[in-house]
Design a protein that fits this description.
By secondary structure, the chain is of the alpha/beta class. Helices cover 50% and strands 16% of the residues.
């Protein structure tokens, strides 16, 4: 797979639909990728991925021709550089609530002078086909993607400054946490009017700052609707949901 294919597609203005995997199965992630997803997110925050499974999963996605992205655990900034060293092409960081949070994220995701990421991408260099470390270093700051999740009222209040932070490449809407926080824990209605307004505000802030607007969607219909509203990196469903839906459909047919 060509190195940094996700960044190349997004920077060219393409709308990229990505799968989302939680089950800590490199084979499941690879199988989903081989159906044609340009990228697959491996969710370490709420998924079951441990370090060994993640290393194997990132490699499997590269071999399948799909760009691996990783959602890291909450405030585990030390894991950002490790995931990039394993060969991830994009990092989604949850609960980026301020420009200060965004700068901390950039600090561990980007090499100097933009950040302070330490050197050690041996696996990334091999997977991405670079002839040596200097080639990776030359490209990594621009083409390794940082996606800041906007999920809270605090993040909404600071969204323009987060978007304007040097080294943040994209804003990513976490609609379920966003709906939970905007309703003070009373609901998870991702189509509530205040949530829809917030979604449009985040998309506009990213676009204004020249950054990529991204969002998670529960299904393909919602994903297509978000693409029409201007989102460019759109993740859909999960490996678990695909498995459950497939099993349910088979049993529905069997039971008549």
């Amino acid at each position: 797979m060509a190195a940094f294919s996700l960044a190349a597609r997004l920077r060219a203005g393409e709308t990229v639909f990505s799968a989302w995997c939680t089950l800590a199965s490199p084979l499941a992630a690879e199988t989903v990728a081989r159906e044609g997803f340009a990228a697959v997110v491996l969710d370490v925050q709420h998924g079951l991925w441990d370090t060994a499974a993640l290393i194997a999963g990132v490699s499997a996605l590269h071999h399948a021709g799909s760009a691996p992205a990783v959602r890291v655990p909450l405030e585990d900034f030390s894991f950002v550089s490790r995931a990039l060293d394993f060969g991830a092409e994009a990092i989604i960081a949850p609960m980026i609530n301020s420009a200060a949070d965004a700068r901390r994220f950039v600090g561990v995701a980007k090499f100097p002078p933009l950040g302070e990421r330490s050197w050690g991408p041996q696996r990334a260099v091999a997977l991405q086909g670079h002839s040596g470390g200097v080639d990776y270093l030359r490209e990594a700051n621009e083409l390794t993607m940082t996606l800041a999740m906007i999920e809270t009222p605090a993040a909404l209040n600071d969204v323009d400054d987060i978007a304007a932070t040097d080294g943040i490449d994209a804003l990513f809407v976490g609609p379920y946490d966003l709906s939970t926080s905007l309703s003070a824990g009373r609901a998870q209605d991702v189509t509530a009017p205040e949530v829809e307004r917030a979604i449009d505000k985040i998309c506009a802030a990213a676009t204004k700052a020249g950054k990529i607007p991204g969002i998670y969607c529960r299904d393909a219909a919602r994903a297509l609707a978000m693409a029409k509203r201007g989102f460019k990196f759109i993740t859909i469903g999960s490996d678990l949901a695909i498995m459950r839906d497939g099993a349910a459909e088979i049993l529905k047919t069997l039971r008549g």
